[in-house]
Amino acid sequence: MPEAYYSLSLKTYAIFRYHSEFCSQARCILKADSDVVVNVAGVEQLCKAQNATPHVTGTCHNYRTNVARSSDSKFYLPKFIFAVDKYPAYCWGAAYMYSGQNISDLILSATSKSPFLKSENFRRLPEDVTFTGLVRILANVSLEFNSGFAINRGGFHYWCLEKSSPVPLTAHFRIAKNPVKNWDRMKKELNGSTSFWSYDRWRKCRFQGTGYFHLAQDEYDMEEKP
Which residues form a coiled coil (predicted)? Predict the structure, then answer.
Protein backbone atom coordinates (compact mmCIF):
# COMPACT_ATOMS: atom_id res chain seq x y z
CA MET A 1 0.00 0.00 0.00
CA PRO A 2 1.51 3.38 -0.97
CA GLU A 3 2.28 5.88 1.79
CA ALA A 4 -0.08 8.54 0.49
CA TYR A 5 -3.08 10.63 1.52
CA TYR A 6 -5.51 8.50 -0.47
CA SER A 7 -4.37 5.39 1.42
CA LEU A 8 -5.75 6.70 4.73
CA SER A 9 -9.21 5.22 4.25
CA LEU A 10 -7.77 1.74 3.61
CA LYS A 11 -5.46 2.05 6.62
CA THR A 12 -8.41 3.02 8.80
CA TYR A 13 -10.43 0.10 7.48
CA ALA A 14 -7.48 -2.17 8.33
CA ILE A 15 -7.56 -0.91 11.94
CA PHE A 16 -11.11 -2.20 12.35
CA ARG A 17 -10.29 -5.51 10.65
CA TYR A 18 -7.31 -6.03 12.95
CA HIS A 19 -9.29 -5.12 16.06
CA SER A 20 -12.14 -7.45 15.12
CA GLU A 21 -9.92 -10.41 14.24
CA PHE A 22 -7.10 -10.18 16.79
CA CYS A 23 -7.94 -7.96 19.78
CA SER A 24 -11.69 -7.49 20.00
CA GLN A 25 -11.38 -7.50 23.80
CA ALA A 26 -9.85 -4.00 23.60
CA ARG A 27 -12.52 -1.55 24.72
CA CYS A 28 -11.49 1.39 22.54
CA ILE A 29 -9.77 2.16 19.25
CA LEU A 30 -7.75 5.36 18.92
CA LYS A 31 -6.87 6.58 15.45
CA ALA A 32 -4.15 9.26 15.43
CA ASP A 33 -2.07 10.82 12.67
CA SER A 34 1.73 10.87 12.81
CA ASP A 35 1.79 14.60 13.66
CA VAL A 36 -0.43 14.11 16.73
CA VAL A 37 0.96 13.75 20.26
CA VAL A 38 -1.14 11.48 22.48
CA ASN A 39 -1.49 11.45 26.25
CA VAL A 40 -1.92 7.67 26.43
CA ALA A 41 -2.80 7.62 30.13
CA GLY A 42 -5.46 10.28 29.57
CA VAL A 43 -6.98 8.41 26.63
CA GLU A 44 -7.04 5.23 28.74
CA GLN A 45 -8.84 7.19 31.45
CA LEU A 46 -11.42 8.35 28.92
CA CYS A 47 -11.79 4.82 27.54
CA LYS A 48 -12.52 3.42 31.00
CA ALA A 49 -15.16 6.13 31.51
CA GLN A 50 -17.06 5.07 28.39
CA ASN A 51 -20.05 2.74 28.62
CA ALA A 52 -21.11 -0.04 26.24
CA THR A 53 -22.99 2.32 23.92
CA PRO A 54 -21.07 2.69 20.63
CA HIS A 55 -19.61 6.17 20.17
CA VAL A 56 -17.04 8.10 18.20
CA THR A 57 -15.34 10.67 20.42
CA GLY A 58 -13.13 13.53 19.29
CA THR A 59 -13.36 17.01 17.84
CA CYS A 60 -16.83 16.26 16.49
CA HIS A 61 -19.54 18.70 15.48
CA ASN A 62 -23.19 18.42 14.50
CA TYR A 63 -22.99 20.95 11.69
CA ARG A 64 -22.24 20.06 8.08
CA THR A 65 -19.24 21.42 6.22
CA ASN A 66 -19.10 22.24 2.53
CA VAL A 67 -17.51 19.79 0.12
CA ALA A 68 -14.38 21.31 -1.47
CA ARG A 69 -15.13 22.00 -5.13
CA SER A 70 -11.97 23.93 -5.99
CA SER A 71 -9.44 21.82 -7.87
CA ASP A 72 -6.67 23.65 -5.99
CA SER A 73 -7.74 22.06 -2.71
CA LYS A 74 -6.14 18.92 -1.29
CA PHE A 75 -9.68 17.82 -0.43
CA TYR A 76 -11.17 18.53 -3.87
CA LEU A 77 -14.10 16.33 -4.87
CA PRO A 78 -15.92 16.80 -8.17
CA LYS A 79 -19.68 16.37 -8.25
CA PHE A 80 -19.48 13.23 -10.36
CA ILE A 81 -17.74 11.52 -7.42
CA PHE A 82 -19.74 13.08 -4.57
CA ALA A 83 -22.91 14.86 -5.65
CA VAL A 84 -24.02 16.22 -2.25
CA ASP A 85 -22.71 19.72 -1.44
CA LYS A 86 -22.32 19.21 2.32
CA TYR A 87 -20.74 16.41 4.31
CA PRO A 88 -22.58 14.78 7.21
CA ALA A 89 -21.47 15.58 10.75
CA TYR A 90 -18.11 13.97 11.44
CA CYS A 91 -15.00 14.17 13.65
CA TRP A 92 -11.86 15.90 12.46
CA GLY A 93 -9.52 13.19 11.37
CA ALA A 94 -6.18 13.86 13.07
CA ALA A 95 -7.34 11.92 16.15
CA TYR A 96 -10.57 10.31 17.30
CA MET A 97 -11.61 7.32 19.39
CA TYR A 98 -14.17 4.58 18.82
CA SER A 99 -15.67 2.81 21.82
CA GLY A 100 -18.59 0.59 22.75
CA GLN A 101 -19.74 -2.97 22.46
CA ASN A 102 -18.91 -4.69 19.14
CA ILE A 103 -17.78 -1.38 17.68
CA SER A 104 -15.47 -2.89 15.04
CA ASP A 105 -18.09 -5.35 13.85
CA LEU A 106 -20.65 -2.54 13.59
CA ILE A 107 -18.30 -0.41 11.50
CA LEU A 108 -17.18 -3.31 9.29
CA SER A 109 -20.77 -4.36 8.65
CA ALA A 110 -21.73 -0.79 7.77
CA THR A 111 -18.69 -0.46 5.51
CA SER A 112 -19.80 -3.52 3.54
CA LYS A 113 -23.17 -1.83 2.96
CA SER A 114 -21.52 1.30 1.59
CA PRO A 115 -19.72 1.63 -1.77
CA PHE A 116 -16.34 1.46 0.04
CA LEU A 117 -15.32 -2.08 -0.94
CA LYS A 118 -16.35 -1.66 -4.57
CA SER A 119 -15.56 1.94 -5.46
CA GLU A 120 -12.08 3.45 -5.68
CA ASN A 121 -13.69 6.87 -5.92
CA PHE A 122 -15.55 6.33 -2.66
CA ARG A 123 -12.32 5.23 -0.97
CA ARG A 124 -10.79 8.55 -2.02
CA LEU A 125 -13.23 10.51 0.10
CA PRO A 126 -11.60 12.04 3.20
CA GLU A 127 -11.07 9.20 5.66
CA ASP A 128 -12.66 11.08 8.57
CA VAL A 129 -15.78 11.86 6.53
CA THR A 130 -16.03 8.21 5.50
CA PHE A 131 -15.58 6.51 8.87
CA THR A 132 -16.84 9.08 11.38
CA GLY A 133 -19.51 10.40 9.03
CA LEU A 134 -21.00 8.23 6.28
CA VAL A 135 -20.16 4.76 7.62
CA ARG A 136 -20.87 5.80 11.21
CA ILE A 137 -24.40 6.82 10.23
CA LEU A 138 -24.99 3.47 8.51
CA ALA A 139 -23.79 1.78 11.72
CA ASN A 140 -26.12 3.94 13.85
CA VAL A 141 -23.20 5.13 15.98
CA SER A 142 -23.41 8.54 17.63
CA LEU A 143 -20.83 11.31 18.06
CA GLU A 144 -19.40 12.76 21.26
CA PHE A 145 -17.40 15.97 21.39
CA ASN A 146 -14.48 16.05 23.81
CA SER A 147 -12.39 19.20 23.93
CA GLY A 148 -9.36 17.23 25.11
CA PHE A 149 -8.83 16.24 21.48
CA ALA A 150 -7.09 19.44 20.34
CA ILE A 151 -7.31 19.17 16.56
CA ASN A 152 -6.49 22.09 14.24
CA ARG A 153 -6.72 24.50 17.17
CA GLY A 154 -3.12 24.93 18.30
CA GLY A 155 -1.80 24.51 21.83
CA PHE A 156 -3.53 22.35 24.41
CA HIS A 157 -7.20 21.90 25.17
CA TYR A 158 -8.70 19.89 27.99
CA TRP A 159 -11.20 17.30 29.08
CA CYS A 160 -12.31 19.27 32.13
CA LEU A 161 -13.21 16.82 34.87
CA GLU A 162 -15.22 18.06 37.82
CA LYS A 163 -13.11 16.59 40.62
CA SER A 164 -9.62 16.29 39.15
CA SER A 165 -7.11 18.12 37.00
CA PRO A 166 -8.04 19.00 33.40
CA VAL A 167 -6.73 16.35 31.01
CA PRO A 168 -5.19 17.10 27.59
CA LEU A 169 -5.80 14.03 25.42
CA THR A 170 -4.13 14.84 22.10
CA ALA A 171 -2.33 17.81 20.59
CA HIS A 172 -2.03 18.43 16.87
CA PHE A 173 1.03 20.46 15.92
CA ARG A 174 0.50 21.04 12.21
CA ILE A 175 3.33 23.55 11.75
CA ALA A 176 6.03 22.40 14.18
CA LYS A 177 6.21 18.73 13.22
CA ASN A 178 9.21 17.75 15.31
CA PRO A 179 7.85 14.74 17.25
CA VAL A 180 10.50 14.90 20.00
CA LYS A 181 9.90 18.59 20.74
CA ASN A 182 6.15 18.12 20.56
CA TRP A 183 6.28 15.22 23.01
CA ASP A 184 8.42 17.36 25.32
CA ARG A 185 5.67 19.98 25.21
CA MET A 186 3.10 17.35 26.17
CA LYS A 187 5.30 16.06 29.02
CA LYS A 188 5.65 19.58 30.42
CA GLU A 189 1.88 19.88 30.29
CA LEU A 190 1.49 16.60 32.17
CA ASN A 191 4.26 16.73 34.76
CA GLY A 192 3.04 19.83 36.58
CA SER A 193 5.38 22.42 35.09
CA THR A 194 2.18 23.98 33.79
CA SER A 195 0.16 24.60 36.92
CA PHE A 196 -3.32 23.16 37.35
CA TRP A 197 -4.40 26.69 38.13
CA SER A 198 -2.68 28.19 35.09
CA TYR A 199 -4.64 30.88 33.31
CA ASP A 200 -4.82 28.83 30.11
CA ARG A 201 -6.41 25.83 31.82
CA TRP A 202 -8.67 27.95 33.99
CA ARG A 203 -9.87 30.06 31.06
CA LYS A 204 -10.59 27.11 28.77
CA CYS A 205 -12.30 24.98 31.41
CA ARG A 206 -14.18 27.96 32.84
CA PHE A 207 -15.81 28.79 29.52
CA GLN A 208 -16.19 25.35 27.97
CA GLY A 209 -17.60 23.51 30.99
CA THR A 210 -16.61 19.85 31.03
CA GLY A 211 -15.60 20.02 27.38
CA TYR A 212 -17.51 16.79 26.85
CA PHE A 213 -21.02 16.34 25.48
CA HIS A 214 -23.14 14.02 23.39
CA LEU A 215 -24.28 15.10 19.93
CA ALA A 216 -27.65 14.21 18.45
CA GLN A 217 -27.66 11.45 15.86
CA ASP A 218 -27.19 12.86 12.37
CA GLU A 219 -29.99 12.46 9.82
CA TYR A 220 -27.90 12.71 6.68
CA ASP A 221 -29.72 11.43 3.61
CA MET A 222 -27.64 8.46 2.56
CA GLU A 223 -29.74 8.09 -0.58
CA GLU A 224 -27.87 11.09 -1.96
CA LYS A 225 -24.47 9.49 -1.61
CA PRO A 226 -22.54 8.69 -4.80
Answer: none
- CA 152 to CA 79: how far, in whole Å? 27
pTM (global) more than 0.70: yes
Distance (Å, whole) CA 92 – CA 187: 24
Rounded-to-integer distance, Cα 87 and Cα 62, Å: 11
Residues 56-65: b if buried by 16+ CB within 10 A, e if exposed: bbbbbeeebe
Cα distance between residue 101 and residue 143, in whole Å = 15
Domain boundaries 1-217, CATH class: alpha beta
Instruction: Please name every residue paired with 66 in a beta bridge, in sequence order, or none if there are none.
Output: 86
In this predicted model, what pLDDT tens digit does every residue of 3-41 receive, in sequence order? 777 789 999 999 999 999 999 999 999 999 888 899 999
Q: Order across the sheet with 28-32: list the strands.
A: 28-32, 91-99, 55-60, 142-146, 212-214
